[in-house]
Amino acid sequence: MKPLVIVVGLYLSSVSCVVSSTAAPKAPAHDVFLITIDTLRADHVHCYGYTDGSTPALDALAKDGVRFTEAFTPSPITNTSHASILTGLLPGSHGVTDFAVPLASTHPTVAELLKERGYRTAAFIGAVILDSKTLAPGFGRGFDFYDNFPEHSSSKSRWGRLERRAMDVVAHAENWLTKHPAGPHFMWVHLYDPHDPYEPPMPYSQTYKDHLYDGEIAYADFALAHFIAYLKTTGRYRNSVIVVVGDHGEGLGEHHEDTHGIFLYDSTTHVPLIVKVPRGDCVGTVVTAQVRTVDIFPTLLDLAGAAAPKKSDGESLQVYFSGTNGVDRPAFGESDYPLRFGWAPLRSVRNDGYKFIEAPRPELYDLRRDTSESSNQYESANVRVQKSRAMLAEVKAKETLADASKPETQPEANANPSSLPDPKDKIKEQNLLHAAMMASEDDRPADARNALEEALALDPKSPTALRQLGELELQMGDYAQAAQHLKSAMVVRPDDAAAAFHAGQALEKAHDPAGARDALEASLKLLPGQFPARLLLGKVYLDLKDQKAAEDQFEAALLLQSDSVEAQLGLARAQMANGNFTEAAQSLEALSMAHAKNAEVFSLLATAYSGMGKSAEAQRAQAKAKALHGK
Ligand SMILES: [Zn+2]
Question: What strands, in cross-sheet order, belong to the sheet with 363-366?
C-alpha cells in the first residue's frame, strides 16, 4: 500500500487526522522521541484494560495520540527487539540474535537516517545490556551522544553498574536536551525498570508489595510523566512525535515461563504501542488492527518526511492514523535465544486470528477462542499450518539473502533444529538458569549455586549449568569441584573455548598440570588468540618441566601482547629452565630499565646472573629485589 495515496485520500475526504510530513515546504522539522519501556506487557497497562496497576502517563499519551491495541514484537529479548525497532528489520535480517552480537553497519538505523536529515541525536539507556561499547555493539551508530555506562564500576550494587533507575535515565535525557536546545532532535529513551528483578523504589515497593512487577511499571510511568512534563514546560510537546513501546512482555509464569526470552506466546510478544503525532492531530485514536514493532522505523521516517530504505520488514503506520483502516499485518516471531542453551530455536507467525509456532513439537492456536494459547490445534495437514509454514519459509528466504554478510553463526545454528530439545521441555531449567544469572549479577553466590544445582538435577548434562557452576566454584576457591563441572561441560560441548579455558584454570589450581595442559590446548585450538590461556599454558608447561613448550607459549603470548611483563618474565623463566641464562639476562636487563620498581624482575635477574657465574651482579640484583619487596 502506498501511504501517499492514503494521506491524499484522507485529505480530500477531509478526515481530521492527516499528518503532514516535514518534507512539506517550510514546515518545521518535528522533534522525535522514541521511548522504549522494557519488559512491558500490553495487558498490564491501564489504558489497555488493566485495573490492578496505575499508568496515568501512558493513558494520557494514548488520549493525545494513536493507541495500537494489537502490536507485536518479533523478539522476546531486549537487544534483538531493540535492533528491530531501530532498523525495521526482523531478527534474522539484522542478525542481532543474542547479546553482544554486533549490529552490522550495512543496516541503517533510524538514528543514522534522521541524523543525515539534520537531526541532533542522543540515546539514554537504562541497562548495561544496551551499552554500545560492550553488549550492544553497533547500536551507537548515528547517535551524537549515547549514554553508556562507566567502563569500570567498583560498586557491587546493580544500580549504576548494570541498571539505571528510570528517573536517572530521564534526568540524563532532560539535562542533555537543556544543554542542546537547537533541534530538531531524535532521542531514544530506554526505561529498564519493569525487567526483573522487580525492585521498585518507595513508595511503589510498598504500594505494590504483592505484585512488584506492576510497581516497576507504575514507577517507569512516573518517570515517563516527568519527561512529558519537561517537554510541555519547554514547549516541545505539542509539535513533537512521541512513540512509546514495550520491547517485549513478561511470562509471569504463563506457559511456565517466569520471565522472557525463550517462548513466542503473546505474554512476551504483545506490547503496548502509542504514537503521538504533532499539533494535536489524531487525538484519542484507537487502532485495533494487528501491527508490528518493525513498523516503527518506517513510521518515524515517514513522519520526518524521509523515505525508508527499500530493505525493510515493516511499513509505515500512518495509514492507520485515521482509525478507519483495519487491515491486519502478519506478525512474525523469532527466538534464537534457546540455541545458547542447546535447545531448538522457535519461529512463529500470528496471522488471521491464529498463531503458529514452529518447534520440534509445533503448535497452532485459534486466538479468537483461545486467547491464552493453551489448546494446541496443530495437525500437519491443517491448511493454516501449511499456509503458516509457507509464510515462514518466505521470511527465511528473504533473511538468508540479507544474511550473506553476517559474520558468524552460532555452531548450533547449523544443526538441524528439530534434532535439538524442544524449549517447552526445558522451561523449568531455563527459569533456574535465569535465577542463577540474576543471583550472580547481584553477588549472591549461594543462591546462584542452589539454582544451578537444581538445574543440574533436572538435566545433569546442561552445558550452561555445568559451566556456570564450574565458574562459580572457581571464583569461590573450590578448585576440585570447579574442575569436575568444567570438565563435564567440555564433554557436553566440546566447542566451548571458554569452558575449556576455565577448566584449565581450575585444574592448574587443583595441582593437575597435565589435565590443565590438555584443557588449555583444547581451548586454544578452538580460539588461538586468547592471551590469558597462552600465559597460563606457558606456566603449566614449566610445571611439567617441558621448557621448550613453555618458551613457545610465552613467545606466542608476546605476539599477542608484546609489552606484557608477565609474558616476558615467563619467557625468561623458560629460557633459564633451558639453561639459557645469557639470553634471559639480556631481556631482563632491558625489562629492569622500564620496570625499575618490579621486585620480581630483579629477583629473576639475580638467578640469571648466578647461572652465568656473575655472583657480584647476582648479589646486587638480589639486594635490589629485597629492597623493593620490603616496600
Ligand atoms: Zn527487554
Answer: 331-335, 346-351, 354-358, 363-366
CA 406–ligand 1 middle distance (angstroms): 23
Ligand 1 mean position, distance from CA 80 (Å) = 9
Q: How far does the centroid of ligand 1 lie from the alpha carbon of residue 86, in Å?
A: 14
CA atoms of 174 and 403, how far apart (whole Å)? 38
Report the distance separating Cα 550 and Cα 547, nearest Å: 5
pLDDT digits (tens, 9 = 90+) for 426-464: 999 999 999 999 998 888 999 999 999 999 999 999 999
pLDDT value of residue 314: 96
Q: How far is the CA of 277 from the centre of ligand 1 (A)?
A: 25
Distance of CA 59 from the midpoint of ligand 1 (Å): 21
Phi and psi dihedrals of 250, rounded to 5?
-150, 135
Residues 452, 458: Cα–Cα separation, whole Å: 10
What is the rounded distance in angstroms from the CA atom of residue 521 to the CA atom of residue 372? 51
List of residues 6+ apart from 439 with CB closer than 8 A: 445, 447, 448, 451
**Residue-level pLDDT at 417:** 59
Rounded to the nearest angstrom, the distance between the alpha carbon of 260 and the centre of ligand 1 is 8
CB 226 within 8 A of CB 167: yes
For residue 553, report the distance from its CA to the centre of ligand 1, in Å.
42
Report residue 160's pLDDT band, with 50, 70 and 90 as the boundaries: confident
Whole-number average pLDDT of the chain: 91
Compute, in angstroms, the gap from residue 250 CA to the centroid of ligand 1.
9
Q: At what angle do helices 212-233 and 56-63 cross, to 10 degrees?
A: 50
